[in-house]
Amino acid sequence: MTEEQPAPKKRTDPTSQLARGELVHAEVKPLDLSGIPTVVVGIVLWAVAFVVLLFFRTTLERDGLEWWIWAAAAGFGLGWVGLWYCTRRWNKIKAGKPVRD
User: Fold this and answer.
1) How many domains does the chain contain in total?
2) In a domain, 90, yes or no
3) Is the pLDDT of residue 82 over 60?
4) Fewer CB within a 10 Å sphere, N or C end of the chain?
5) Are 69 and 75 in contact (CB under 8 A)?
């Protein structure tokens, strides 16, 4: 008499499904290559954070957290550096020049 062994379970993890060809890749459009809109949103958010934190300045000073205001100011300033960098890089890409930054 022979005992029947149960068939091995079929793995259902995504890696196995991909290996068996069961997963289909969706057509995904590339993201914006310039990065400029993202940096502009960041600059605006840091500016808003700075203004909001100014309203709580006395509370922040009392709790020793006044550096939050200056962190927001630094984020705003560094955002402008990032905007300059992204704009320069994007202009080089559009002109067909090599980008070596």
Assistant:
1) 1
2) yes
3) yes
4) N
5) no
